[in-house]
Design brief:
The chain has nine helices and eleven strands. It is α/β, with parallel strands linked by helices. It folds into two domains: about 180 residues, 3-Layer(aba) Sandwich (Molybdenum Cofactor Biosythetic Enzyme, Chain A), CATH 3.40.980; about 70 residues, Alpha-Beta Plaits, CATH 3.30.70. A hairpin with a 2-residue loop joins strand 7 and strand 8.
């Protein structure tokens, strides 16, 4: 599937926080066999979120994943902004409210908060568009969201990395696991000159049009040998064997010094 990732948060744009969430998601989604086609980082401004979600939804993607903006503060507006992008109002979701209540009760009993009461700020985290499914957050308080809209599956995750990873691993990853997956293999070649190596890459790609292959130079030097990355989609149980075979074929195709 083609997937867009949207990271929401002014702290990312100001350089105060490094967007490790997108990096993590891109690696995990690629390993699952999906194609991340867009990663964007935007401000926590309603109009910006609406525009970015509309733009992502207008491109050929099946899944949109957002991170950040699910908390109790006034600038946590990701979910209502996503709803607005599809001209859909938000309502208090009973299941989401139950999650929020359970989590604050837990934090209260642990002495992490002064009160377990469902304040307006806390209730705000349970405001979902109709048809959305809350995703339990065992690390923080804000539930994630899964929403099917206009043929696109939208997942919204908290911005705190530990919370984001918990929801992804326990709710999203099982949804997105497929038997047909994508894998990559790095192969060290006997070549030192990327410009000479390219002809072998081009010829191999022509013979194997369904694979991804690209040189990965690191530096110049007499002892340097340039690596090539070979990627392909295939059956989960056969992919490693296929990549090993392709890597061997490619190395055998290099017949002249380069």
């Amino acid at each position: 599937m083609r997937i867009a990732i949207i990271s929401v948060g002014r702290e990312i744009l100001r350089g105060r926080v490094l967007d490790t969430n997108s990096n993590y998601l891109a690696r995990e989604l690629t390993a699952l066999g999906h194609q991340v086609v867009r990663i964007s980082q935007i401000d926590d401004i309603r109009e910006e979120i609406i525009w970015e979600v509309k733009y992502a939804a207008s491109s050929p993607v099946e899944v949109i994943i957002t991170t950040g903006g699910l908390g109790p503060t006034s600038d946590d507006i990701t979910i209502p902004s996503i709803a607005a992008a599809f001209d859909t109002p938000c309502f208090e979701n009973k299941e989401a409210l139950k999650i929020v209540e359970e989590r604050y009760r837990y934090f209260y009993e642990k002495g992490a908060v002064e009160s377990p009461d469902l304040t307006p700020e806390r209730k705000k985290m349970a405001c979902f568009p109709e048809g959305a499914v809350p995703l339990f957050n065992n690390v923080g308080a804000a539930p994630g969201m899964k929403w099917e809209k206009n043929g696109i599956t939208i997942y919204s995750l908290p911005g705190v990395p530990a919370e984001m990873k918990y929801i992804f691993e326990n709710h999203i990853k099982p949804d997105l696991e497929e038997r047909n997956i994508y894998r990559e293999r790095f192969v060290e070649t006997p070549c030192r000159d990327e410009s000479l190596l390219e002809k072998y890459i081009s010829d191999f790609k022509k013979r194997n049009p369904d694979i991804y292959i690209k040189s990965v130079p690191e530096k110049f030097g007499k002892e340097v040998r340039i690596k090539v990355v070979i990627g392909m989609r295939g059956d989960r149980e056969k992919i490693e064997e296929l990549l090993t075979s392709l890597a061997g074929e490619f190395l055998k195709s290099i017949r002249e010094p380069c």
